[in-house]
Give the backbone structure.
Amino acid sequence: MVPDEVLAPPRPTPTFVDLLTTATDPRAELAEALQQPQAFIPPKYFYDSLGSRLFEAICELPEYPLMRTERAIVDAHVHEIAARIGPGSVLIDLGAGNCEKAERLFGWLAPTQYVAIDIAADFLRERLSLLAGRNPHHSILGIAQDFTQSIRLPPQVADGSRTLFYPGSSIGNFAPDAAFAFLRRTRAACGDEGHLLLGVDLVKDKALLDRAYDDSLGVTTAF
């Protein structure tokens, strides 16, 4: 028998809501995109479980400094961010990925609930389980949802002021009209007293972008 005092406590289980079943038909959306005069694939479809892991690796590449730059900006200004937003809001993370960016804000924003939204349902479940183990006293809710089409907040989202968090410069993945529509949806989701914490990249030199998307290890090619 193992003494009770050395038994590990049970890992907290985050609440999870899957709203992908009501989303746009991926086959139809991809077919429409590929039939455009300039064919494209919406970036969200790269972020399945494998793609999400590959993107984690991309963010550590020397040729891809975006994540490190973003961390440095947050570390330098997090006290100003916290002073503007204040403690105790519901932190809603759009495109949460591995949740690492939002977790860095927990100690400063002291959210009453963390809501992680991502299209990669299985990857999000896995990362939220790890997150809950590191933050057992936080209320954590995961939502599998295509937030590029709509932002639906189910009843499991706590009441109170909301802070929508959309870092990573992914706003650049939208065409201008789509970006405007997305920002209007985020404004509505914030409510009258909420906040939007948005990351926007600056114009980059073409040589820097070429290296980022053609790294020496071929990770981006695999992605």
Summary: The first strand starts at residue 15 and ends at 18. The chain has nine helices and six strands.
